[in-house]
Amino acid sequence: MSALLQLIDIHFSFQYGQLFDGLNLTINSGDKIGLVGHNGSGKSTLLALIKGEHSLDGGEIRMPNAVNIAVVDQFVPKALNSLTLIDAVVAALPPDEQLSARWQAESQLMQLGFEPQQFDIPVRGLSGGQQNLMLIARALVTEPQLLLMDEPGNHMDIAAMSRLVQYLKNDCRCGFLVISHDQYLLDEVCNKTFFLRDKQVYSFALPFSEAEQALHDHDEQAQKHRSLEEKEIKRLRATAKRLAIWGKQYDNDKFSRKAKSIEKRADKLDAQKTEVSKGSGLKLSLENHDLGAKQMLAVDDLAIKTPDGARALLHIDQLVIRPGERVALLGVNGVGKSTTLETLMKQYANGADPQAKIRFNPRAELAYYDQELSSLDAEQTRLDWLRANTNAVEDDLKHSLIGAGIAFKDFDRKVCLLSGGEKARMMFLAFSLNKPNLMVLDEPTNHIDLAGKAELAEQLMQSGATLLLTSHDRHFLDAIATRWLWITDGKLVEVNGPEAFYDSLMHAAKAEASSSTSAQANASSVQSEVAQANEIDDELALLERIDELETLLAADKARKPKFQKPQLQAQWQQEL
C-alpha cells in the first residue's frame, strides 16, 4: 500500500494562535478517511496547507509527483455561476482536453444523480446541494488518485446526501479524505477516522462511531494514567521536601542529596506526564423567557410564493404552533422550506396585525437563524457584533464569551474571518443573551461539529423554547422534534413522523436509478448501431478516428508525467 500524502511534524500558527504543533498524518491508496474536529480546530486550514495556500512554520508535506490530488472546496467559485452545469465540470480540465472529455463529465454527473436534461442549467440556478455535487464532479473528472473534500454534505437534502453516500461507498475508485460533521456519511463511507484536536491528529482504522468510542476509551485510559502519575509526583515532592528539612535540621548531607535526587525524579516524571485532551473548550448554553399562552404562532389560508412572486411554492391551509412545541419542517430542496421561514420572519418584522394570515403571540420574542449566517459577514469584532445584536450589558457580553470557551485575546477577532462553525456558535451565543421564546432555525447544524450538534440538541430541549426548524441531519431532527410538517405536492401536511418522507426519498432515488440505467442502455444501443454502420459503410470515418486517437495518445505522452492520464491512455490504446 503506497502513501499518497504525508504530513510530517507540521507546525503552523495564525494571527490568533497556534493551530498545529507536531502534527503527523499519512494517507495511503485505498484509504477512505473521515476528518473530524471541533469548530476552529483547523480542518479547512489543513486542506489549505496541502494546497500550498499558506507557508508552514515547520515540518514537511510530501506527495509523490505522479499523484494527482484534487480538492473539493466548500464554496462555488464566482466565475462558475454563469456557466451551465456541464460546462462548469469540463472547465476543470485543460482547454485542449475539454471537448474530448465531455462524455466523461456527463457520465460523472449521472453517477452523482443528475439527469441529462439538467446539464444545461446555469450553476447559479442549482440548489446548494446540487452545487456541492457539481464541485465533486469537477474534481473527479480530473481522475485523481486522492480526493480531499471539505464539508461536501452542507446544504444537501437527504436525497442528495444519499446519492453522495452511494457514490463514495460503491463507485468511487480513488482514495479520499472528507471533512464532515454528518455522522451518517462518516459511518457509511469511511474505513478510517482522523480526529483533529489538541493541535495534532489521532488516527483510528475504524468508521466514525466505532472510532469515537475508541477515542473515548483512549481518553479514559489517559486520564487514569495521568491521575496515577500526578499522585506519584505529589508523593515524591512531599518526600523530597521532608528529606530537605531533615537535612537542614540535622546538618545531614546525605538527606539533602537524597532530597535533590528525588526532586529531579519528580521533575522528570512531571515533564513526561500522559497527555490528556483539552477538548474544544467551546460551550453552548441557551435559555428563554417562559411564555404562558395557548398558541405561539397561527397561520391561515396562506400561499407561499417565490421571492419574486412569480410562482406559487405551497399552500398552508391552517397551522397552529403552541408554546414549547418543537416542529420540524420536512421537504426536498426547492419546495419552499426556507422561503416559508423567511415569509414568517417578514411578517414578524412588520409588527402585529390581527387581520393578517400570519399571527404571532404579542409576547413572542423571536430569534431567526438563517443558514447563510449573513449577519456574521460583518467587519465587526466578536464583542462589537454581540453589542450590535443583543441588549446585554458590557459585563454580560464578556462573561458570555468567556463562558463559551473563547479566550480574551480572541474577543477582537472579526466575525467575518471565523469558520462556519464558529459563526454558528456566535449566533447561538446571541440567542442565549437575548433569551428568545420562539426560535426559527433554518439548517442550524450545517457548520456545527458533531459534539456541538449533540450539545445544541440538548440545550434546545432544555431551554423550553418553541422551535420551528429545518435540517437535513436526520439524527438531529429525530433527537429534538415533537411535531412533523411535510411540504409535499404543493401543500403543508402534518404527519406522525418522518418515516413517510424518508420512504418517499428512497422510492424516488430507486426510480431515478432505474430511469438512468434505462436511458444509458438505450444510449449504448444507439451508439453500437451507429458504430456498426460506420464500420460497414464509412471506412473513412474509422480512419479519422484512428488518427484522432493516435494524436491524443502522442499529445498526452508528451506532457510531464504528473499531468498525464494513464487511464485515458489505456482506454485510447484499447480502442485502437
Choose one word for the global shape. Answer: flat
| Class from secondary-structure proportions | alpha/beta
Please compute the radius of gyration using only Cα atoms: 29 Å
Q: Could you give a short account of the major beta sheet?
A: 6 strands, mixed
Task: Explain what you see.
With 576 residues, this protein is of the alpha/beta class. It is built from 18 helices and 18 strands. It has helices at residues 43-50, 85-90, 95-98, 102-111, 128-140, 158-171, 183-189, 208-249, 253-271, 337-350, 382-389, 394-403, 420-434, 450-463, 474-480, 499-537, 539-557, 566-575; strands spanning 3-14, 17-28, 32-37, 58-62, 69-72, 146-150, 175-179, 192-197, 200-204, 297-305, 312-321, 326-330, 358-360, 366-369, 438-442, 466-470, 483-488, 491-495. The strands form 4 sheets. A 6-stranded mixed beta sheet has the order 5-6-7-3-8-9, sandwiched between helices. Strands 14-15-16-12-17-18 form a 6-stranded mixed beta sheet, with helices on both faces. α8 runs antiparallel to α9. Residues 523-537 have low confidence and may be disordered.
